[in-house]
Specification:
Blueprint lengths: L5 E3 L11 H15 L9 E3 L7 E7 L4 E8 L4 E8 L7 H17 L2
Parallel strand pairs: 1-5
Antiparallel strand pairs: 2-3, 3-4, 4-5
């Protein structure tokens, strides 16, 4: 395997519920991250409300919009959540859950 591994704390990229095209696009973006590339807008944007080095991948599906919240670590790409976005702003509950998962992840590291 090349690049950084993905560490999934929650969620997945699966068909269904994502279309095959959306799953492939998300997979391509994740491979870019693993290879050290940083996708720019509109595919990725920083999420400082969650924490340092946190971002969200953005993929538009047929009639849905998917988000994948991640953090870039020196040794991995940590996936904090994958969800269907239904509003203009990221729901506060998603932000709080990602912060909590990140805190638990940091506490579990040596």
């Amino acid at each position: 395997m090349n690049g950084k591994p993905l560490r999934w704390l929650r969620g997945g990229v699966k068909t269904p519920p994502m279309s095959v095209e959306a799953r492939r696009e998300m997979g391509t973006l994740l491979r870019e991250l693993q290879d050290g590339e940083q996708p720019a807008l509109p595919h990725s944007r920083p999420m400082p409300a969650i924490g340092p080095r946190c971002h969200e991948l953005r993929v538009n599906d047929r009639n849905r919009t998917w988000r994948l919240v991640y953090r870039i670590e020196p040794d991995a790409i940590v996936i904090l959540d994958v969800f269907e976005k239904k509003t203009n702003q990221t729901p506060q509950q998603v932000i709080e859950n990602c912060r909590r998962r990140l805190k638990l992840y940091e506490a579990s590291r040596p």
